[in-house]
What we know:
Chain A: Keywords: Oxidoreductase. Chain A is α/β, with parallel strands linked by helices. Chain A is built from nine helices and six strands. The two termini of chain A are 32 Å apart. Helices cover 71% and strands 4% of the residues of chain B. In chain B, helix 6 (82-106) packs across helix 7 (111-122), helix 7 (111-122) runs antiparallel to helix 19 (353-364) and helix 18 (338-347) runs antiparallel to helix 20. In chain B, strands 3-2-1-4-5-6 form a six-stranded parallel beta sheet, sandwiched between helices.
Amino acid sequence: MSTEASSSSCRILLLFAHPSQARSEVNSVLFNAAKQHKAVTAVDLYAEYPDFNISIEREQQRLLEHDVIIFQFPIYWYSTPALLKEWQDLVLEYGFAYGKGGDALKGKQFMCAVTAGGREEAYQTDGFNHFTLRQLLQPLEQMASITQLTYLAPFALFGSRTAKEEHRITRHSALWTKLLDTLAQDELDISKARQLENLTRYFDEQDLHQ
Amino acid sequence: MTGYFLQAFIYLLAAVIAVPVAKRFGLGSVLGYLIAGLIIGPVLGLVGEETNAIQHFAEFGVVMMLFLVGMELEPKALWNMKLRLLGLGGLQLLLTSAVITGIAMIAGLSWQVALTIGLIFALSSTAIVLQTFQEKGLQQTEGARGAFSILLFQDIAVIPMLALIPLLALPELASAINETAGQNAGHGDSLVEGLPGWLYGLVIIASIAFVTVGGHYLSRPLFRFVASSGLREIFTATALMLVIGIAALMGLVGLSPALGAFLAGVVLANSEFRHELKANIEPFKGLLLGLFFITVGAGIHFATLTENWVLIISITLGVMVFKALVLFVIALLFDLKGSNRWLLTLSLAQAGEFGFVLISFAAQNNVLATDLIALLQLVVALSMFLTPGLFILFERVIMPRYMHGSSNRQHDTVDDKGSVIIAGIGRFGQIVNRLLVANDFKTVILDIRSEQVDLMRQIGTQAYFGDASKPGMLDTAGIEQASLMVIAIDDRETAVEMVKYVKLAHPELKLLVRAFDRGHGYRLRQAGADYLISETYHSALEMGAQALRSLGVHPFQAERQKHAYRDIEAQQSDVLYEAWKDDASGERFDNNYRELFMELQQLIDDALKSDLHDNHSKRRGWTPPPKGYAEEQLKNQKD
Lengths: 210, 639
């Protein structure tokens, strides 16, 4: 299921978790685009571990071989789909990712590429969901902190259920490819990328059309 | 006797050389046979007068072909296609024969002869066209489907044509031939000679009723009886007996044997023995039809061609242009768009093999004079020779123009799911089949036990009786189109042989095979199976896990033990296989293998045990941080 990345200045590991890909309108587009990217190792977790029997050895080896780790998933109950949580529980072991001698991930970059059904207005302190997306993803941010990963802002698409009808996917996909390019060439402005609410705002309109 | 062998050898040799060469050049097998005949007949002069006698014999291939065509036509499927068949096919036949008859009459021929010629040229070549569609992967396009409807209608229409042609006999021709060749016309074996008209009618109705009713009710018990004997050659003999018997019956009552065979084919289309029957008749049909085409090629008068080449070539081109025009109009009427319109137009512009049949039939019935026969045969043959050229024109010139901006092709491939062949529909095959069918995959099920096939049919699963280890059987089951084959038969040796054959003949096809045990699994793997499963492995694991649960082990823990077992088994299976393979002697399970096997058992034992007792085991997963972890963390923060 994975296409091993070739040598490039930054190697990206994309861990994609989507249990219902036949119904996917946005994530499958992004994942397929990433599969074409030379610097990306694209892993479809649900295809590789349909019975949740995750190989810890294999996954840790993958982490060691890459510089950027991306979780790609649709938001399920303000969190990751079950398999990606299982992946965290199993792979990020004491002595590997944290605790005594657990420095394997130190200095790597980490981000989430997510889609959310609700509108951006709903993900506000005074909105329907009472928290912003960044706030809701804080467990992952803290996971990155403990494992010494550099946490970047999430790359998020809101209102994903109607993105297709509203013709927003093409632009989002172009942003995604641009972001992967930038990450691969190690040209991302880390302090800017850490502070943003949403990485989709990282690029200016004119950047996109270059 | 030696003379016969020599002749048979010449025919076979010509076919063996010419047909593969013709196929290599994309000309198709029909043209290969014609060329073979052309070479051994007019060109080299190796065969001569006897071709006529052989041709009568070879025409039996046409009877068999119609039997097979009939078997392809389930009455229900035929009914569903009625609009396309009658619309496309009927219109094509009517318009083309009308146009050509008209032109022939203008050219000064009598209406009987003109009509015969019209009918001959209205037919196209099923053999060449369907084969080419398949070779070029065009079957699923709208154009090809239209063409198929037309060809099917033509194949059916041949039967009334065979009935019609004797009525067009020219009296003066008939008397001339009767005088010169009285002994040849010695068809003294007719039962109905001299019967009064009403009795004759009754006899005909009775024999047709016998074929239909008998085919429906008597054939099944007969086939079941024969199949239960388990003797392959007797089944073949039964199939041949059936076709020959019907041909003989029809001959006795003065009807066309082809018509009878066709009827019997339709009656048997729903039978569970259909694929097996087809597989048995197919080789005979193929050889006899091949022989028929060779005799046609051998019988071509080269002299006629060299003397009248301008006339013959212009008639050929004329016929093809008019046929194409009619087809183009029909394509317009039926709203075929883009490249499909051109595909229909170009693919069917030739005359076909049934043209030859009609020509020789018309000759026997004194409808056509000898010089006209030679000319017509040349035109039919030439137009068939030109067909591959038309397909090349379509592929190289027309397709590229429609490739962009046309959603046709994408649309066409949607329902083109590769089907799955399942060999063996016992307890194992049934579950595989149900899972596939529930997910809308098309399966073709073959089983050699006719009771099992009956049982499946009673519970609504469409299974066919047939021996999947026979290449011919797999061909009729559509192995060319299949993308996957599941082998779940009980006979271990046959399963290994099947894997070998299928991997050799269809390397692209994925083979999923059930193994009986470890040793059988290795042999299947060596033979080239893509995926193997031991028949009891997973159920035994499941039972083991349930036993653990019943003994009070936590269900999730039991599940994990099962996973651990499976993982280690999978990791070690390659090592064991190599050890098994390395041992060249007859005793496959030698000491080295035994040792490795014991090692595997030990590995599994260790893994399962450690997980149960030891916190820091080799089996990882959800291992909590060490007990002093929280204090360590606080200390780090202070630093």
